[in-house]
Amino acid sequence: MSWVPSPSTARHLFYGILIGFSLSIASTSVISAYRKRRDHNAVEKASPRPIELRSDEVLDGVTGLIGNTPLVRINSLSNALGVEILGKAEYLNPGGSVKDRVALEMIENAEREGLLHPYTGSRIFEGTSGSTGISIATIARARGYDATIVLPDDVSLEKVKALEVLGADVERVRPASIVDKKQNLAREYALDFTSGKTPAGALVNGNGNGNGHALVDEDEESLSRPRGYFADQFENRCNFAAHFTGTGPEIWRQTNGEVAAFVAGAGTGGTIAGTGQFLKSMADDVLVALADPDGSGLYNKVKHGVMYDHKESEGTRRRHQVDTVVEGIGINRLTKNIELALPVIDDAFRITDAEAVSMARFLVQRDGLFLGSSSAVNLVACVKLVRKLGWNNGEKVVTVLCDSGARHYSKFWNDTYLSKAGIPIDVGIVQDLLTQPFPPMSSITKI
């Protein structure tokens, strides 16, 4: 007699077949999705993702171009050292340097404090080695101000030409020591300008702490009068703030929070102070290292607590202030921004002119990167830091590519000038740094 399942058994058998079929379909879907995802990831790894352009994304004038610069891998140095040397490409800012961030923050803060009002004939004054002046002149034009820039007479001619094209009034003076009255010439000009334009005769100034002052009544008439504003990048806390709220967070995001070290030079001190403090606030084990050129006193201040360099003795300097072909970094006095940097700086490296020149030439030959003098100093310091610590496991070392070589044709990139100054042009200097054997781990001193 043939077996006929009971209704209950048939029902269970049907449910079992249905469940098995459903599981089969589900597992097939999961496998298919996994394969699609794997293939998609393989494509992403094989070809870099293009820059994403979103609809209705239009920047508001030239100031909208400032910041959010790319972080670029320096292939030659990274491959040679076994780490990731990453450069924040600040030379891609519209004014051509990292100083665009600072200039914008100082001007916007002055506007917030009511110290500057656009299109009133007001003028911004600043003393600079060039880059900050170019950034101020660029933003001043965009925001309805005039600019007067006081700068040393031995800076590269390219910077002077850029300032003149931007319509800034340029005054070139001999580099002055800290005790020289010309140290605050831009401040005096701001006072004189305001005195001649307003009955109260007051300097309009601010330091980024919300306590700038204008000794004129803020009535309707005074708001339309021209004012002189001394930006004072060395002491203005906006310098620090621009990097604490901008550069630092950008680097943290771009590296997914995986920063082993940050390396930067210091002129005013704002970049290393603001960026360094932000990165350490996110991870206190991030190393912050100073890259200091010949003749600057900051290296000794960090290493020995004394603000002095032996090349500062009378009769031994090519310049009054800093004995180096490098422009934009190096100083022999403490500014408010440098004071903010000192607590977070773990180590310092002295970089010679010859090393900087060698690095710049090496990068052009190996990477096609045409960089300025301070960028080259920063990258030499990165190599020295990695060598000192014996890193070779892909650690991420971030630095700042401050400006391009296009501002340095007449000096740093001028072989004749370098020869007369006694500075060798030898790519082998960097090649030797890269090929030195790593020090044994037992001999590495913790910073």
From TrEMBL:
InterPro entries of this UniProt entry? Cys_Synth/Cystath_Beta-Synth (IPR050214), P-phosphate_BS (IPR001216), TrpB-like_PALP (IPR001926), TrpB-like_PALP_sf (IPR036052)
Localization recorded for this chain is: Mitochondrion outer membrane
Q: Does the keyword Transcription apply?
A: no
**Segments passing through the bilayer:** 12-34
Q: Does the keyword Isomerase apply?
A: no
Enzyme Commission (EC) number: 2.5.1.47
Cofactor needs: pyridoxal 5'-phosphate
Chief site of localization: mitochondrion
- Say which enzyme class the record assigns: transferase
Q: Name one GO molecular function term.
A: cysteine synthase activity
Q: Which reaction does it catalyse?
A: O-acetyl-L-serine + hydrogen sulfide = L-cysteine + acetate
Single GO BP term: cysteine biosynthetic process from serine
Q: PROSITE patterns per the record?
A: CYS_SYNTHASE
Q: Which segments constitute the Tryptophan synthase beta chain-like PALP domain?
A: 62-403
Q: Name one GO cellular component term.
A: mitochondrial outer membrane
Sorted alphabetically, the keyword list is:
Membrane, Mitochondrion, Mitochondrion outer membrane, Transferase, Transmembrane, Transmembrane helix
Write down the membrane topology: Single-pass membrane protein
Q: Which family does it belong to?
A: Belongs to the cysteine synthase/cystathionine beta-synthase family.
| This protein's name | cysteine synthase
What is the organism field in this record? Answer: Lactarius akahatsu
* Classification of source organism: Eukaryota, Fungi, Dikarya, Basidiomycota, Agaricomycotina
